[in-house]
Amino acid sequence: MFNAIYLTRDEDKKVTAEVAALDESQLPEASVRVDVEYSTINYKEGLAILGRPGVVRSYPMVPGIDLAGTVSSSSDSRYGAGDKVVLNGWGVGEGHWGGLAQKASVDADWLVPLNAAFTTEQAMAIGTAGYTAMLCVLALEEHGVAPEQGPVVVTGASGGVGSTAVAILAKLGYHVVASTGRPDEAGYLTALGASEVIDRAALSEANPRPLQSARWAGAVDAVGSHTLANVLAQTLDNGCVAACGLAQGMDLTTSVAPFILRGVSLAGINSVMVPYERRVQAWDRLAADLDPTKLAAMTEVVGLSDAIDVAARILDGKVRGRVVVDVNR
């Protein structure tokens, strides 16, 4: 038996979330079984646990798009009992039982070995949010955005992706401008390395002009909608915006002007279906470019029984940084 957050849906499509004791025989068939040590609560878990549409594709479901732990058994030669592994994405917690459980059964192709620089707890303090932030930084670098070219803005900076992006970019020498709707978090963001903190209202104008005064050499945007449109309109010639989120909305009201008049690139970041080599590259760079003391400062650890309450907090915008779930607590 093992404990898990277990989601069920009744005939009226009402979703119930509870911590339940499950039998290992209920786990889905897959090539690797993992004794999970830590998982995370991200925005997707918040949606799933509270029964919002668009995330969970079948019920019953164990949510959790992240996990880190130790392989207990494997039919795949790439992994053996005792190996430390990490999983991010691949539809886990959406269409396949996920990481908010003491045990998981997953496909070997979805795993990467845990980088020796990290404990399993630290790996989940990074989680999909931090790994996505690193993919954004890689995209900026590959599009030629260097520290000497000007400031880089990070939207949704108090969230998991934003916090990690601020910390990484600051360590790499960028002048980081953190955009947040929570002015009381300014001290937290400057401690992570932000050079400036601005109110998100400065980037939230609806139906913005397609070209505005150019400010940003690059951007990491976790917000979407009007914010992304304003960021694009304010990006310098040949700059790049890495877009990875939709906290404000999925719409994007802009024009071709930033792209053809300033040569701005919009790099879409999909962290779910990423080739193995790119995942390993991202984790290797995280080991080199993310200060572990900054990681600890942005992380809250809760037990499995607390995760359901955290889901509501994260959707209400009341969670700062990262929430790690100790599934054995």
Question: How would you sum up this structure, described in words?
Answer:
This protein is of the alpha/beta class. The chain has two domains: 2-114 and 298-326, Medium-chain alcohol dehydrogenases, catalytic domain (Quinone Oxidoreductase, Chain A, domain 1, Alpha-Beta Complex); 127-268, Rossmann fold, CATH 3.40.50. The protein is built from nine helices and 15 strands. Helix 4 (186-192) links the parallel strand 9 (176-180) and strand 10 (196-199). Helix 1 crosses helix 9 (307-315) and helix 2 crosses helix 3 (160-171). The longest helix is centred in the middle third of the chain and has 23 residues, at 120-142. The protein is globular and about 60 Å long. The model has no long low-confidence stretch (mean pLDDT 95).
List the helices and strands and how they pair.
Blueprint: E1 2-9, E2 15-22, E3 32-41, H1 43-49, E4 66-74, E5 84-88, E6 103-106, E7 111-113, H2 120-142, E8 152-154, H3 160-171, E9 176-180, H4 186-192, E10 196-199, E11 216-221, H5 225-233, E12 235-243, H6 257-261, E13 265-268, H7 276-289, H8 292-297, E14 299-303, H9 307-315, E15 322-326
Parallel strand pairs: 8-9, 8-11, 9-10, 11-12, 12-13, 14-15
Antiparallel strand pairs: 1-2, 3-4, 3-6, 3-15, 4-5, 5-7
Helix pairs in contact: 1-9, 2-3, 2-7
